[in-house]
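Trying the structure run again after the queue cleared.
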Amino acid sequence: MADSLSTLSAGLFTPAVGETFTFRDLNGSALTATLARCDEYPRATMPGSARTAFGLIFTCPADAVGDYGGGHGVLSHPTLGEFGPLYVERVLPVGFPPGTASYQAVFS
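Done. Tokens:
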């Protein structure tokens, strides 16, 4: 588990775009999804912040979502380890094919 979410940056996740991550929510539901995008948001970064704000977009087939509803939980990757607790929310799958579910985690 990461020492602190404040130490995470887009640079950690950018090389993992296209790789599989797993979310586990507080109720024990899990979802496997692919990291589709990692975007930095310099204009959304608070003055004096130690990192640039960034967001992660994960995708999976909509029919694979099952009981997973998003919310607070833990994000894990086979090489990067576990991160959390953090908040992940389902968002509109803009720019992705029909039948895709997408989730976003934002770090400011």
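The chain has a mean pLDDT of 92. Worth checking whether this holds up in the mutant runs.
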